[in-house]
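Protein Record: Sequence and Backbone Structure Tokens
======================================================

Structure line: whole-number tokens from a learned vocabulary of local backbone shapes, matched to residues.

Purpose: to set a sequence beside its fold so the mapping can be learned.

___
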Amino acid sequence: MGKIGIFFGTDTGTTRLVAKKIYKQLGDDLAAKPKNINRASPEELMGYDALILGTPSYGVGDLPGTAVGCMEPNWADFAPQLDGYDFSGKKVALFGLGHQERYASRFASSLIKLYQLFYGYGADIIGRWSIDGYEFEHSDAIMDGQFVGLVIDHRGQSFLTDERIETWLSQVKPLLLCQAEAA
């Protein structure tokens, strides 16, 4: 059985924390240890048939990176390396972070940029997530009335983080495992 690859971008460390929580819930038998995207190569991502990718929200709905003020390279800095790669046939589940009170007008909007990036390279994006239980004005990460991936507000609703991860994983894990086993 192939493992699920977990990659994340982070600026303050919170996305790394959530990636580790996802890994812990999946376990070492099912998932590879999470890796910061600023230490990864496209070939590493291509080595998995099932991926979980995470992003912080940074800038005004931008893909996080040094150009929008991140302290370390992030998804925007990694994205140009993906040119020429084809993610067709790969299942990709996304998670994103946001702060619904402080950034209510653009809550978790960077998640749509990660969605567009990998969708554009042919990935089969899975793991939509309900907008219920959040209070915000706007998010670009909503498609057909749902977030395009799991959204975590670890600053404002940290008491829900573990439960949300568990519920989301119960939905995406069978699809990711089916893909990883087929490889």
